[in-house]
Amino acid sequence: MSLVATRFAPSPTGPLHIGGIRTALFNWLFSKNNKGKFYLRIEDTDKERSKEEYKNQIIQSLQWIGIRHDDKEYIQSEKIKLHKEIAEELLKKGFAYKCYCSEEEIKEQKEKAKKKGIPFVYNRKCRDPKKLEVPKNVNPAIRFKSKMSGNTIIKDLVQGEINISNFIIEDFVILRKDGTPTYHLSAVVDDHTMNISHVIRGDDHKINTFKQKQIYEAMNWKLPNFAHIPLIHSQSGSKLSKRDKASTVDDYIKLGILPDTLRNYLLRLGWSHKDKEIFNLEESIELFDLKGIGKSPSKLDMSRILSLNEHYIKHMDEKELFEFLKDFCKKFEKKINSSKEKTLLKSMHFLKNKAKTLDDIYQNAQYILSDIINISSEDSKLLDVASKKILKDFLSDYEKMTKITKESLEKIVNRLIDKHKTNFKGIGQPLRVALTGSKFGPGLFNIILSLDKDETIKRLKLIK
């Protein structure tokens, strides 16, 4: 059996889309499951829109989610000479022809097709050289001479057998008038050069596969296996686009989503293995196959992502989670004073409770991170005369304590409940507001135990 080799081939013309990450993940998992190679090809032939910053963002996004490509990145623009040579070879062999049609002629054909409500197919005006009048001083494009009769079949590893009429495949351009190769030509030449065994990509590429298959056959090259993955749709059911709020990897990083969460979610988005929901990295590689990919589009579900993130936060080692929190805060300029780190780390076991994102943990920790507690006008209403008396009595008992534990704190609270004829909320709520600035947040005893004794006393004394 020949070596399995897959590739992910993004264009660096914008931030990496979430659908692109899933495609990369499926390619990477498939190659690793088969002890093969996974390559990253940067398709940067669109010089006007391609930017180095987007290339770096693509690589960083893949690394963030745990995908490492083999060997160096394959840079498509460095191979243009080879692409052009293949175009010339196809021309010589009679599989392509020079097209002298102007942009105005093509535009007119497209408008006619639009009015009729049919897809645009080039009218093959330049296909027969005998009938062709070659205009002077016009640089021709080179078009591939597509089959005009019969059918083509693709044995797709996800979609099954796909059969279409060759007549609907137009004579597509492989070399533009300015001498630059098109996607169809470059992709085929690169996949052949890289010995790609499996092309796994979105099912919006299906028609491209029929075009590209003809180039493989014309060059007498071995055809790779094709697998077309259904697209990711938004909650409304439309194709997910860059206009959607959570469409790039960076959007999820900003929300405070963990890389394992997004990897696990994207793995399960359109793929399944029995009824298993949670997969670690090793299981993902071991169990992934193309048979588990469904044929229908998948809907992006933000509530499911948050639920999964909560699961990972809850079960993650607290030291590891703390490092993720620090990286998150550093990246988005959320200040953590180094003097607070020790307190934060020892408090992670409760700060992460019910937290769906890293930002939730950061917000839960505000009472630790902030030296000055700001109480909103709404919450300050909870500090009435009776509540202030409770705080004063708690402070009196607290200052006398030598060993502060949950049990010793419970004794004080129970004593105050009896004395003030109230309940736990009646004692806990004013204490929480005084110590954190809010009636919401971590458990009362966790708050008090996480703060230094001097800090707790200082905050209680500020309530007059």
Question: TL;DR?
Answer:
Helices cover 47% and strands 11% of the residues.
Number of separate strands: 12
The number of distinct helices, counting runs of at least 4 residues, comes to: 20
- What is the molecular shape? elongated
Subunit organisation of the chains: single chain
Given helix and strand content, the structural type is mainly alpha
Helix content: 40-55%
The low-confidence parts are none
Instruction: Return Rg in Å.
Output: 31 Å
Strand arrangement, major sheet: 1-2-3
Largest sheet, in brief, is:
3 strands, parallel
Distance between the termini: 80 Å
Give average pLDDT, whole number: 93
* Relative strand content: 5-15%
Describe this structure in words.
- This protein has 464 residues and is mostly helical.
- 47% of the residues lie in helices and 11% in strands.
- The protein has helices at 18-33, 52-65, 80-92, 103-116, 183-193, 206-218, 249-255, 259-268, 281-287, 302-315, 318-331, 341-351, 358-364, 366-369, 377-380, 385-400, 406-419, 424-436, 444-450, 453-461, and strands at 5-8, 37-42, 74-75, 96-99, 141-144, 151-156, 160-165, 173-175, 198-202, 225-229, 232-233, 298-299.
- The chain has a three-stranded parallel β-sheet, with helices on one face. Strands 4-5-8 form a three-stranded antiparallel β-sheet.
- Strand 9 (198-202), helix 6 (206-218) and strand 10 form a beta-alpha-beta unit.
- Helix 5 (183-193) packs across helix 6.
- The protein is elongated and about 105 Å long.
